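To close the chapter, one final illustration. This time we ask the reader to focus less on the individual chains and more on the assembly as a whole: which components sit near each other, and how the overall shape emerges from the parts.
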Amino acid sequence: MNKEELIQKWLDHELNTQELEAFKQLEDYEALTKLDTSLKYFKAPEYNTSENLEQVMSTIKTDKQNNINWLSAAIKIAAVFVICFSAYYYTTTLDTTINTIASQKQTVELPDASIVELNAVSLLAFNESSWTNNREVTLQGEAFFKVAKGSRFDVKTEDGIISVLGTQFNIKQRDNYFEVICYEGKVAVTHNAKTTKLLPGDSFFVLDGKLFTTEKENQSTPSWLLNQSRFKSLPYREVIAEFERQHNVFISLKNIDDSQLFTGSFTHNDIEIALKSITLPLHLTHSKIDNIITLKRE
Amino acid sequence: MSKPLNDNICEERLFSSLFNKYSEDLNNFLFYKFGSTLSPSDKVQEAFVKLWENCGKIAPDKAKSFLFTTANNLMLNAYAHQKVVRKHEQIKPKFSTNETPEFLLQEKEYHAKLNKAIANLTEAQRVAFLMNRVEGKRFKEIAQLLDISTKAVEKRIYGALKKLRKDIEEL
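The assembled structure is written out below.
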């Protein structure tokens, strides 16, 4: 066996007794043993497996807890942000809504100083945050508009859209009843995809789905702003409906044709006078129990 | 071929057994390769923590190579961050006092030379050689740990021995 093989075997701790003897005879033997003993000083420091394992396990466990804590804290913070943001978003983008109940009138000033007079049992909604880009209000019921000069101003109703540029006009949109009267400036009414332009004094009137042409309006403001309701050849039921709204009562008709036409007016200030105004011309009598008024033929 | 079924490193029992099996070898490997300056045992712990974090993704039979690679990379990163001198000799040799001063001096010189020579070995040579000489590991065991062939281990160790002897003589 040659020297190299012996050294290889020695390195691999594989020498048998015979070979070991041969190895000891080598001239390199002394140098190799010296090297080998000195190398013992290069041993890695004592390693304590169980102690290290313990440390790793504790790191793992605290890590896990930390992760959970961190995650749950993050979720909490995120939730707070989401709530704050949505509340902010909700309140700022929410439409401002103004509602009037029976026998109540209200003046509303829009963000651009346009004025809306809201009649009884009506609803007006607009969005304050998008007002500068989009002058748009939603209306249910009756209102008179004094629009400040500026860009396009839209009023959306169930029966159509009214677009204007600085003007005064009245909209009355009730069941089966849609009327727009222009008092100043110019108004465009879009009804059933058809646009009609109104000049001062013009009116647009749809009753039960039928378009009527009416006489020129010569008043400068709608009568209801002066606490009066005026009617010109209108079905009696419209008069009754308006009366109910203005005086917060319920009216039942007995043996009365509610489609007969009525011309006249009633006041909003005094219910007794108002009742007389709508009953006397038709020769009706009235009796009142609580909030219910019954009308009968004489 | 039996495929380990329900074996999952995420299970603490298996994780601990892996730790007991490999942590010391890994620690020594790092020590022989990089020296003691950057606390190999910390890197061992870090590597095991990483193994735990990825326990679902690593098959148990891949755990060893994951650990060695991870720990090695951790060490390399640490070295990249701070240029440190590698120090390999751990235990200062004690020289018995009943020797002649001349002998003591010779011994000291020899150790200094040996230290320098070991530092001069390539990393691969040093790791294999010290595992073999200091830990008393057989070629085959080293081959398994380092994922190389026995022949390669043999070559590295023999090469290291030759280089050491030559260096010591020259110095």
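Chain A has three domains: 3-42, 96-226, 227-298. The radius of gyration of chain A is 47 Å. With these observations in hand, you are ready for the problems at the end of the chapter.
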